[in-house]
Amino acid sequence: MPKRRPSPIEEATPSDCVIVHLIDGTYELFRHFYGLRRFNKGEDKPFGAVIGVLNTVLQMIETGATHVGVATDHVIESFRNTLWPGYKTGDGMEPALLAQFHPLEDALTAMGVAVWPMTELEADDALASAAQIASEDETMQKICIWTPDKDLAQCVRGGRVVQIDRRTQKIRDAAGVREKFGVEPVLIPDFLALVGDAADGYPGIPGIGAVGAARLLNKHGIIEDFPAAVLGDKRDLALLFKRLATLRTDARLFHDVDELRWRGPTDAFAACVERLGEPRLLKRCLAAQKIVQ
To answer: What pTM value is reported for the model?
Structure first.
């Protein structure tokens, strides 16, 4: 097997540092599904995206990742749908993609990877919660959140909790968040409340764009501290959108970061990869297991 190049975060971090890798499984499933669409001429393989995600996670392990957790949307809807009728749903999602969510969760579990299938909360809430739990452990030198979703930028803290866009391999620390959005990471929920988030289905406040939102937030701070005249009768709407944009950090996904340490596949993984039609994954897993032991 050819030697794989470490990720940018592994290359930029001393070898004795413990890094926690938190992966947006929903994003990865979408990424692989539509990536395969370019080559499969419309004939979606039943588990094509699942295999792609497994390969991605395994490649991270092969190149040095030791502590890994994956968050997924077990159901697409969450508590936010009760707050705003236009919030994103599973309507219109490709059936062939939707059908791979649960098999992905089962396959990752069989591979020995910590998985958090979310129901009332979203995968983004799980990532935010996991980052919070991991950051409380002072022995964890770095926490990496692998997703390009802009709402996860609110979780970035200095250079210790960072966001990584796998497609561009860009690492975004607090300075990177300020450069991209014009505000500190803690103000991202306020920023999104004002400008909206089309991907999540809320429009923001009419007449306020990214530059204007950053200017207001840097001048007044959080929306709650805005002078009444700034938003007028749109203040309550802005606060509702902020609630939608604010990720929950109180999901108790694990107690000890060591629970995220990958120790190898379970006994069920052999049968799993046979069902998926990708038995080579087992050989790679067993080879990686010998390295981590």
So the answer is: 0.92
